[in-house]
Write a structure and sequence with these properties.
- The structure holds 2 protein chains of 2 kinds.
- Chain A is of the alpha/beta class.
- Chain A has 2 domains: 3-222, Rossmann fold (3-Layer(aba) Sandwich); 229-297, Alpha-Beta Plaits.
- Chain A is built from 11 helices and 14 strands.
- Chain A has a 6-stranded mixed sheet, with helices on both faces. A 4-stranded antiparallel sheet of chain A has the order 2-1-4-5, with helices on one face.
- In chain A, helix 3 crosses helix 4.
- Chain B is globular and about 60 Å long.
- In chain B, 82% of the residues lie in helices and 0% in strands.
- By secondary structure, chain B is mainly α.
- The two termini of chain B are 25 Å apart.
- Chain B has one domain.
- Classes of the chains: A alpha/beta, B mainly alpha.
């Protein structure tokens, strides 16, 4: 497997505190990798080490086969880094901003590249405005355009949708997905689970500086204990769902009963196997028009919670 | 472990000719910012108003050619100090304030390119102000300033460039270690006023031998002393020209290298 990122025993200690503690991690080229963890878990420290911004206390990290310590300049040429709160020069226009970074990266055919990047992030029409008048989402998109101008092989995105409104979040997610589909390797740090579900093929969970799990989203879900929540679908032809909820709540083994949507009742039970047949029998007995009954799938949130306790 | 750190430091601090294009890119960007802001124009206006005032005095009260040159050089030296502080105090720290430092640090440019580009832009702007003010003497003609000793004038101007360069390097260093523009401004102005305060204190306490001994010792660390050595030799026949030039160059080199080290090696955890 050609690796995009490889960490071996990577450690960063700040004032005696191990922010990242001997992590081993491999990310294949062409993957959209989600690096998931609660606040303070070590995500940003890891990404900053990989982006050559801070040096590891011990261990090694390589990007595209290049050591982030020894091949520092070469690594910077092939990566793009988007910090959590990306900066900007308020008095510059997007064109000037991108041209400046284009020159720093020695981008050839800069005029075309910059215009294409602006079109890709939807800021072409605003290219002549000063960046200080931009919304947070527009500034985030501008910084994504900055990542594109030198055509990096690997993108490090640290909380790319942090602080954005729903529209901005969707726009940035769509951009990430499009970049991933375009063949870029993307390393996304986030604690927003839907983001991972929507854009990532591989997921690493970091907790207290250590890697807690590493797999595909489906693989991680399969590792988590099956939930003990039974979802019951009832039709309109029988007893009313509200009445059924009241009756189910009277059962001593029904821990929590909620109406998830119209005609769908979620029942949390203590011991799953013994209660499903009994619940089905009782529902029929109470006159329910029973349409279906299934176990609730564990979500990525369940996975996250189980690994970050 | 030490070996690893030395290799790391060498990587981040080594500068070569290949860094020159990046320095020029940074310099051009800084020059653009300077000429879009009011600071350069304000500083140039103060210089021209001051020189014009001396020219006017010259026509009203003839003082000979050297006194006018000496006064202009003294004015420009004072302006150079303030100019250097005003232009340098936010040079590096503004990149932190706008959160653009991580963006630049992940671009393939060295910390030396960044610092030297900013430093060069400050000196080029000062050079442009000086060059324009030189036109007073070159185009003013004998009627305005009499027969000017051009050699003294040019050397006097060079001494202000050295002074601006030394003070800029101190302010850039302070800017690189500061966490906010405000703290950088206070630090740079504090150092400038400390340098000036030593000169003032020497006048005030000239009759107190023990105080003067301390002040004379402290004065060795003031870059104003080295600038005075140059102008004294030019206008009053002193002999400290070379020491003055060496002192200012040493100041410039020491603090610019210091700033490069801070930018290259300091880890901004935020």
């Amino acid at each position: 497997m050609d690796t995009a990122v490889e960490c071996r025993g990577l450690t960063k200690i700040f004032d005696g505190f191990a922010a990242v503690d001997h992590i081993d991690l491999t990310v294949a080229r062409g993957t959209v990798f989600g690096f998931l963890g609660p606040n303070g878990a070590g995500k940003t420290t890891t990404i900053r080490m990989l982006a050559c911004l801070i040096r590891p206390t011990s261990g090694s990290a390589s990007v595209w086969g290049l050591d982030v310590g020894r091949d520092y300049m070469s690594v910077k040429r092939i990566i793009g880094y988007l910090p959590e709160s990306p900066g900007y020069y308020p008095e510059m226009t997007p064109l000037e901003f991108l041209r400046y970074f284009g020159r720093l990266f020695r981008v050839k055919n800069q005029g075309t590249v910059v215009e294409e990047a602006l079109k890709k992030v939807g800021l072409y029409d605003e290219r002549g405005l000063e960046v200080k008048s931009f919304s947070l989402g527009m500034r985030q998109r501008l910084n994504i355009a900055r990542l594109l101008i030198h055509d990096p092989k690997l993108l490090f995105l640290d909380e790319p949708t942090s602080g954005l409104d729903p529209r901005g979040t969707r726009e940035v997610r769509d951009l990430i997905r499009a970049l991933g589909e375009g063949g870029k390797t993307i390393f996304v740090c986030t604690h927003i689970l839907p983001e991972v579900e929507m854009v990532c093929e591989e997921v690493g969970i970091i907790n207290k500086g250590r890697i807690a799990a590493l797999d595909s989203p489906d693989g991680l879900r399969s590792k988590v204990k099956a939930s003990n929540v039974i979802e019951v679908g009832v039709g309109r032809g029988g007893a009313r769902p509200d009445d059924l909820v009241t009756m189910i709540r009277s059962l001593p083994w029904a821990k929590e009963v909620t109406v998830k949507s119209e005609g769908v009742i979620a029942v949390e039970v203590g011991t799953l196997e013994e209660k499903r047949p009994e619940l089905a029998r009782l529902l029929v007995q109470w006159g329910a028009d029973l349409l279906c009954m299934k176990l609730q799938e564990p979500t990525l949130e369940d996975v996250f919670m189980s690994y970050t306790r | 472990m030490i070996g690893v750190d030395l290799a790391f430091a060498r990587q981040r601090l080594t500068i070569g000719l290949s860094d020159l294009p990046s320095s020029l890119i940074v310099m051009k960007k800084e020059l653009r910012d300077s000429f879009l802001s009011l600071r350069a124009y304000t500083m140039a206006m103060v210089a021209f108003v001051g020189i014009s005032f001396f020219m006017w005095i010259q026509t009203e009260i003839p003082m000979g050619t050297n006194p006018i040159v000496e006064m202009v050089v003294a004015l420009l030296s004072l302006l150079a100090l303030f100019y250097a502080v005003v232009f340098s105090m936010d040079s590096v720290v503004s990149e932190k304030a706008t959160r653009t430092l991580p963006l630049i640090k992940t671009a393939p440019i060295s910390s030396a390119s960044l610092v030297l580009g900013k430093y060069a832009a400050i000196l080029v702007t000062w050079g442009a102000i000086l060059l324009t003010s030189l036109l007073y003497f070159l185009l003013g003609g004998r009627g305005l300033v009499g027969e000017v000793a051009l050699d003294k004038l040019v050397l006097g101007y060079v001494s202000t460039i050295l002074l601006a360069s030394a003070m800029s390097s101190v302010a850039i260093f302070i800017s690189s270690v500061s966490s906010s523009v405000k703290s950088s401004a206070m630090g740079s102005l504090g150092v400038l006023f400390a340098f000036m305060g030593i000169s003032v204190a020497r006048q005030l306490f000239s009759g107190f031998e023990s105080v003067m001994q301390i002040l004379n010792f402290v004065r060795n660390f003031s870059l104003i002393r080295y600038s005075s050595m140059i102008t004294e030799q030019l206008f009053q026949g002193g002999n400290g020209l070379y020491l003055g030039v060496a002192g200012l160059l040493a100041y410039s080199a020491l603090f610019v290298v210091g700033a490069i080290c801070v930018v290259g090696l300091k880890e901004d955890v935020a």
